[in-house]
Write a structure and sequence with these properties.
This protein is α+β, with helices and mostly antiparallel strands. The chain contains eight helices and six strands, in the order H-H-E-H-H-H-E-E-E-H-E-H-E-H. The chain has helices at about 20-35, 50-60, 80-105, 105-110, 125, 150-170, 185-190, 220-225, and strands at about 75-80, 130-135, 140, 145-150, 175, 195-205. It binds flavin mononucleotide.
């Protein structure tokens, strides 16, 4: 018999688990990988509108992420208002100009060179939607008391990953943008100081004819080490 997790949870529901055949598992795993491999960061967006229901469904998918102690320590600010987008663009460009011209060390600039990025951020105004991800360092109870959250950056980043995958699956392009520093986002969006802006996810349709950097992804054996239950068959047998 397998060892069971001690059942100390008071309120439980039965897990809705649909077991798949091995064939179905393989098909789904390969298809999902094929879909995700087609995701590329886009930096030129068309101003074409995107249905709000699509964005809402993707945000909901992002919010399904696991989180430390189930605190769900994220807030997504969805922006389509042109005046707010303009404000975000001009604040981001001020910070980015400082970064590219003064603060960035040469090795960082060298790493960015193949991507062709600079301090100009027109996509912050052109794309139909910006989604600013905030990580909630504390949860505020009804009386305004602070309750600590756990694994805040990890949890909010997983939620962001699911959001990016959901937007891609829905046929939208994304850009993960991290103006540095990002505190201006709290001021513009009226978010409390207990929230740390993590990333801006820019989304919409790519501009027609958009070109992207020709970069390669690591192969599986470059980022995976395998520690199998049984030694590989060709491994020498140990004599007793
Ligand atoms: C945490 C994070 C921050 C990033 N910040 C920026 C950014 O500020 N500006 C930008 O143009 N791209 C940014 N990117 C996008 C990366 O440059 C891009 O993901 C990488 O070059 C790989 O390309 P791909 O997404 O097309 O696979 C960021 C990506 C991540 C994950």
């Amino acid at each position: 018999m397998t060892e069971k997790t001690p059942n100390t949870i008071r309120n439980t529901i039965e897990l809705a688990f649909e077991e798949l055949s091995t064939e179905e598992m393989k098909t789904r795993a390969l298809d999902f990988n094929t879909l995700l491999q087609k995701r590329r960061t886009v930096r030129d967006f068309s101003p074409r509108k995107v249905p709000r229901e699509v964005i809402d469904a993707c945000l909901t998918a992002g919010g399904s992420a696991p989180s430390g102690a189930h605190r769900q320590p994220w807030h997504f600010a969805l922006i389509s208002d042109p005046s707010i987008k303009r404000e975000i663009r001009s604040a981001a460009e001020i910070e980015e100009k400082e970064f590219y011209e003064k603060r960035a060390p040469q090795d960082w600039l060298d790493a960015l060179a193949p991507l062709g990025t600079d301090s100009s951020k027109p996509f912050l105004e052109h794309a139909p939607f910006l989604i600013v991800i905030f990580a909630q360092k504390f949860k505020l109870d009804a009386l305004g008391n602070r309750q600590k959250n756990y694994y805040v950056t990890e949890s909010a980043s997983i939620a962001t990953g699911l959001l990016i995958a959901a937007l891609h699956n829905a046929g939208l392009a994304t850009l993960t943008h991290t103006p540095s520093p990002m505190k201006f986002l709290n001021t513009i969006l009226g978010r409390p100081v207990t929230e740390k802006p993590l990333m801006v996810i820019v989304t919409g349709y790519p501009e027609k004819g958009t070109r992207i950097p020709d970069i390669q992804r690591k192969a599986l054996n470059e980022f995976v080490s395998v520690h199998e239950e049984w030694p590989a068959i060709e491994a020498p047998m140990k004599l007793l």
